[in-house]
Amino acid sequence: MTENHIVVVIGGGQAGLSISWHLSQRGIEHVVLEADTIAHEWKDSRWDNFTLVTPNWQCALPGFCYDGDDPDGFMKRDEVYDFVRRYAHSFDAPVREHVSVTNALQGTEGGFDLETSAGPMHADQIVVAVGGYHIPTIPRFAEKLPKEVLQIHSSQYRGAHQFPSGDVLVVGTGQSGAQIAEDLHIEGRRVHLVAGTAPRVARFYRGRDCVAWLHDMGVYDVSIEDQPGGVGKRENTNHYVTGRDGGRDIDLRTFATEGMRLYGRLLGVEDGVLQFAPTLEASLDAADAVAESIKDNIDAYIEREGITAPTEQRYVPVWRPEVETTELDLAATDITAVIWSVGFRTDYSWLKVGAFDGEGHPTHNRGVTSVSGLYFLGLPWQHTWGSGRFASVARDAEFLAEQIGLEISAAQPERVVV
């Protein structure tokens, strides 16, 4: 028999749980389907020494806030996992674990027909809360690397203990790549790091965490439509910084002075020789420029608001490449492992509705699609900078819950939704 639900939420992470809380508050019948276990991504897809890069006080889910004794600190991997699971238990979220959705399409008489590992289901409305990072990306030319070189994606990285002795090549300097390079560096491994175009941000400036300044400045409240470049902002890479050991900058130039080898963009590999574009210096300068521009904005805010704050010397580069390496023969190095930290691609192949662009990304306005009853939650830059993180998922969930309530009231005028 087919199970019938008013709303089916797909995904049991912080986004799916947040919309579940709001639906519960409104008395809207629903179920949350989780293919694995609640918040498993925090446990299964982060390395051993992982920490949040946003301070704990930003972990404010609907009806549940960080309650530890270090609001300005940065929770570690297992602490985040426990935090999200405690949230689910705090309101007895109707989560069904180990239930995967293998197919979903619009029903012939409205709503959506779902094929799941627990049998067929029908939902009047569905909320897709599975994030935007599904399939790890590894370039095709990785196949040309010598067979004896161990290769993994950043989502599989747990620590230096995974690799044989020798050097490690990390490709990519987004948040994960930069932090993984730092982790290996701290563990005493020699790291070869391929720098991309990711910007960076200072951890602290003028007496406070930069996140706190940006929060007070309202930066996290600016909708994507009001951002320079509009929805194109969704393609931007997040700034690299770390919350490790109480939080600090990640400065690739400092790593270089300590023995890390830096390279420009990786173009490919031929006969065991890595080929790089001479983009390293430009990438480092661009990352620093973004960090300094954020400081400029903080300075302007402090002056405009008449805030008393300590002054601080600006950053001065501690290293520059004398000559950029454009070729590296692996046979002449001690590199025994490669970590690909070059992102993910989406996979909504199971969701057979006309709500995607030519690259497979959902088309939506604040999570509301053109398909009646279909919503997305927890996407990067869904509405604001914080949408894909703890910072703003509560606000996004509340907005969608209101839309769902309106949809139910319009379809069933006799049903009272509070």
Automatic annotation (TrEMBL):
Keyword Lyase attached: no
Keywords, in A-Z order: Oxidoreductase
InterPro entries the UniProt entry points to: Auxin_biosynth/cation_transpt, CHP04046_FMN-dependent, FAD/NAD-bd_sf
Keyword Phosphoprotein: no
Gene3D superfamilies documented for this protein: FAD/NAD(P)-binding domain (3.50.50.60)
Name of protein: MSMEG_0569 family flavin-dependent oxidoreductase
Organism of derivation: Rhodococcus sovatensis
Taxonomic lineage: Bacteria, Bacillati, Actinomycetota, Actinomycetes, Mycobacteriales
